Amino acid sequence: MPFRFYKILFLLFFIVCFQFSNAQEIWDWKKCIEYAMQNNLQLKQTDLNVKLEEINLQKNKLNFTPSINGSSNYNLRIGNNFNFFSGAYERQLVHYNDYGINLSQPIFDGLITQNSVQKSKIDLEALKLDQEVLRNNIQLQILTAFLNIMNANEQLNQTIKQKESTLEQYQHTKTLIDAGAAAEKALLDIDAQLTTEDLSISQVKNQLELTYLNLKILLQLEPNKEIKVKIPELPNGIEIQELASLQRIYSDALTLRPEIKSADTKIKSAEKSIKIAKGNNYPTLSFVGNLNTFFTSQSKNSKQEISTTEFTPIGFVENTTTLVLQPKVNTTQSKNPYFNQLKQNLNYAFGLSLNVPIYNKFLTQSAVKQANLQVQLSQLQKKQAETDLFNTISQAYLKSQAAIENFKAAKKNFETAKKSYDYAVERLNTGSINQLEVNLSKNNLASAESKLTQAKYEFVFNTKVLDFYQGKNITLE
To answer: Do the Cβ atoms of 455 and 8 come closer than 8 Å?
Structure first.
């Protein structure tokens, strides 16, 4: 029995875990934004580009420091070799090995290094601004997708409530028929209305699924991943405030928008490229130093000994025939040890190295011309960015104005349609009109309510876009 009890508990635990793992995740506005900022592939690419430029900046800074290199060579020389110890050519096998350390410290390079460091800093700033532009664009796209979901969800709730109202009317009419107070044909018009509302519910559900799919695509989630958006509550009474002037919004955007700042930094970067290119016209001056030593098998240690038994005649005593003898000197040679030679042959030198450019196939002149053209191109790109920004804000401004007018008109239309429907229901209850006329009035109300909802979200979106260009934070809370 205890074992069976544990099996049942384990089974229940497994079922609960399975249901929990398959439950829909709740995603609110904040979670969507945070997830996109952390997982978007384009943003990850910009992160890598920023890191690459940081490495490039560090590399350019290190050009101020000296370069130190070590070298070593080994040669096996066969045949006639000049012996610089004896000053003669000798036929022998010679082993030669050398070591060296060289140092070069730039003193002046036409300010190329200094300008390269400054250019890298500007390029890094531009990359970060471009990254901010991408974040803003993603945020706007998610705002659009989020509001579309909210719109479709609200429209779905409205169509469901309309069907519930029609069902109540169906039950009421059926009660009247059972009591003999109404004809059975009255149900036919209500059935037709129910069919129409079922079709509307199906269409709105499909639209809601499409809006969810669009959000998943923006978040780069798997299409089959089940998520549920937490719908924020918009204010019941939307306050329509007067819009700031178009010129005011544009002026604020020029000082705030990262795409304009990025265009400015790219002009500065191009101007630094001119200075870097011109720097190649100047001579370069460097401090140089080197430390060297070598080993060769030609180097020998010599040892001389004066013989006490062997003598060599070198002449006669003056005015006699007596020989003058000199003790013979015996010379012996031995290998000069490897490390002993390295120590003996150690030498160093230092000085200045001047390099004066005379003719380099006009490469510097070509580079300067290219850099000047790049400045002009960057200036045009800035003007294009300003023009695009003005056009975008102008479109958003006109859409906001239209959205305000549409919202006012849709609200008035809805209020009129609501009164008309309420009056039609009253007349139906008194027998003045039939069910078909009530259905027509109800469909007009449903259409007016749908248009009001659509106008409301268009108003919210376009006003949020204008707030965005004025540097205000986008929030749906």
So the answer is: no
